[in-house]
Amino acid sequence: MVESKVRLLVQNLEGHESIAFAHPFNKGFERAHRCRADEEIEKVKQGSLEFQARDIATSTTGHGPVPEAVLKEEQAQDEKNADDAELTMVYTTTHYVGLELNEGMSID
Question: Which of 13, 59, 79, 98 could bridge across to 22 with cysteines, CB 3.0–4.6 Å?
Fold first, then answer.
């Protein structure tokens, strides 16, 4: 459903006088996030990568191995916060659209 809405968005963007061309990236970027509070979930929903579980590979964010020091730090933080709140995994897919503006135009 989201992908069809992205196509509609691109069509509407190209109808704007300032935009010469809109090109959607053909795949979304999937990410996993570890959240412990509703506030963290809301941040993730707004696009924050602060709580991204970098040790969980996805098909579109397989950017190579995470350094061991980073993994150990995240695991230590997970253990430290284990009793503070219940862990909620949040999975997101982010879609991007590239825009080419008409010469001399700006987007308001």
Answer: 13
In angstroms, the CA 77 to CA 55 distance is 13
Percentage above 70 pLDDT, the chain:
73
- Chain centroid to CA 28: how far? 9
Residues 6+ apart with CB under 8 A from 35: 41, 44, 51, 87, 88, 89, 90
The one-letter amino acid code at 92 reads T
CB atoms under 10 Å from CB of 101, counted, come to: 13
The SS3 call for residue 33 is strand
Q: Indicate whether 91 pLDDT > 60.
A: yes
Please, are residues 32 and 56 in contact by the beta-carbon 8 Å criterion? yes
Structure tokens at 9: 């968005």
Query: What residues pair up with 23 in beta bridges, in sequence order?
Result: 98
| Res 11 pLDDT > 60 | yes
DSSP 8-state assignment for residue 15: T
pTM of the entire structure? 0.63
